[in-house]
User: What shape does this take?
Amino acid sequence: MKIFDFAVVADWESRLSNLAQLAEQERWSYLNISGKSNSIILENYIKYTFERAFDQQKIVESDNLTCFNTGLLTPGQEEIYAVFSLSERFDRTKPISSDNKKWYLRSWVRSGDHLLTTFLEFPSLVEYWNDPSHLVFDPKLQVQLNLDHIIRDNLNRFPEELGGKVDKKGVPTDLATQADEEDADVANESDGHEIPLATRNALEGAMKHSIRLAQRNYRIAVPQFYRGRIQLLLPLYLRNATNPDLALTLERHGGWYRAATVLYPDWAYGHARLLARPNSEWLGGFRTDVVEAVKKKKL
Assistant: This one.
C-alpha cells in the first residue's frame, strides 16, 4: 500500500520541508542528479517507510487517528510520527477506494506531542533484516565480479571518457537520469555494441581495489535495502582515489557475493538511508560541509 493510496495528502512538498526542519539535520537532496523534489531522498524514504510499515502491520489506529513511526528523530532525540486524521470526505457507507479514502495526512509530531495521547501504544520501527550478519561485509567470502554484464546493462552510468554519460563533475548527462530509478535500469541498457576494453579494465581494477579495502575495513561496505533485500555498497574509484564515480552493489548468495550492478552514488545514498543515516565518508554521509553544500546548490 502506497501512502497516496492510503490517505489524502495535500501540499506534499511543504510537508516534506516541515519534516526536514523537525528532524535532525542531514542531507535529503541529491548532490549530482537533478530531481523533481528538493527533498528527493526524504520523499523516497517516507514513501518506502510507510509501505514497509503497512506490510508489517505497524500502523496504529485509534477512533479518529492513525499513525506510523517515521524512524526519524528530532535534534532532542524524540521519535517522529506521521499522524493521519479521518478525512472529511470519507463516506462510511461506501468501500474505501481511491475516490473514498478514509484518512488524510495531518502532521508530523514528536513523541511527546499531546496529539498522540489518544493512542494506547506507539507504533514500532519497521524492520528490514532478519540476519544482522548480512549488514557487514564478510572478508572470507569470494566475490563474483560479473564485469561484462554490469557494463552492458549500465554503460551510461560510467564517466564519459569510459563510454558513459557522466561528466567530469560527476553529473549524469543522459535524459534517463531524469526518470525514476526503476525505469532508468531499462533506459540505460546497452544497444548491443562491443564493450569498451578500457571500461572493462577500469571496472575490474576498481572492483578489486574496493574489495581489498573492504577486506581490511568492514566499514567501507555500506548496507542498503533495494527491491526487498539487503545488499552491500562499495565505492568504485574509476578516475581518482578521492571521489568514487559509482557504487557497486553486492548480493550475498550463501557462501559468496555477486556483484549485481552499479549505481550513481546519489541513488546508493538514498537506498542506504532506508536502513540508517550513512556515516560513510565515501558515500557522502552526514557531514556539515556536505549539508551546507547541498543548501548552496539548492538541489
